[in-house]
O-glycosylation ligase, exosortase A system-associated (Roseateles agri), 440 residues
Amino acid sequence: MLRDLALLLIFGWGFLQSFKRPWIGILIWTWISVMNPHQLSWTLKDQPFAMVIFCSTMLGLLITKDRKDFSLAREQRMLIVFMVWMCITLPFSMLFDESFELWKRVMKIDLVVLVSMVLLHSKRQLMWFVWINVISIGFYGVKGGIFTAMTGGNYKVWGPETSYIEGNNEVAVAIVMTIPLMRFLQMQMQARWARLVMTFCMLMMVLAALGSNSRGALLALGAMGLMFWWRGKNKIGPAIALVVIGAGMLSLMPAEWWERMNTIKTYDQDASALGRINAWWMAFNLAKSHLFGGGFMVWTGVIFAVYAPDPTDVHAAHSIYFMVLGEQGFVGLFLFLALFMLAYGSANHLRGQGRRQPETQWLSDLGGMLQVSFVGYAVGGAFLSLSYWDLPYNMMIMAVVGRRWLARKAWLTEKPEPLIVWPPFAQSWFKKTPKAMPLS
């Protein structure tokens, strides 16, 4: 009950704050949507906290005196076009009732993404946004890593119930995508103990991804590790460290884990892999026959019977690419790919331009780590259905807000803001009257 009371207090505080400072409402919404903390409670699981925060934040957007930026970045324009296309395809859905329910959920997520780019503008707000995403996934990753170490990898790591990342494959790729964001935060830390704690958390995240028994996560880890190594100035030292750490973690995995990972090489003999390929062919055949795709929720026996090579082997898409292809057609897939290519390009812009002056080095760090995260999403997402989930779009928000901050040279006009401001009555509790936790 104490856990439920604590959550209620946080939700209540966020609800009140979102009217005056709607960017805080964005943070609370992100926490609820990505982490699903109410699913960890006893009595609050079915309460519409996300909708309440969404409504209060939208109202706060109208009445707040805080800075708002209604200019449209290229990612925003592309996302709006993608949203319009999904609205166009909805009436042509093969299973309209089922599609309509998911369409409402996707539209709400995308609308919050657009609103987030309007409300988030300062370094402090952007750093908080990164922290919220890291904490939301890091909770399951660090806990899952410790669980994997204690059980010798004999049990799978799962995500929160009734969420996008409930499955072992989905939570694993979410964990993998969050590791570079953790590394970004670590690069901003100066205290040695904080950097050590973050190192421990990242190691546990890797162990949790392995403990999920997800082959897609293993491939994503490999791709991200290769990118980390390639960008490093010293190639030999990091390579040795990666090999040693990787060997140590892999040695914890049981024989069953190795047997499953070996099926990557023999996918043509694995029923799960063959089922995914069958679903991919179904999506391709469906998109060829229907310009608007089949709409959301086409992964059913009725539709497989018409378009799949094996009509009896019904599977979910298990691929962000084929999921969008089957549901939104080739036009939808093009818009989806273009959206994240633009976001990757903005992250690359931050990485290159941010290193030109010390005040913007943190943006260079952020851009580089976002690129690594996007690579993890591109590789791991090829094997799971997370086309519309929040975290990849949240990373796009980070790239857009960071690029705007850089373009307007905000370090020249923006007053340095602490990440956490202590209340006045608490300042007397400290000898040196600390006012805040530093940003970097």
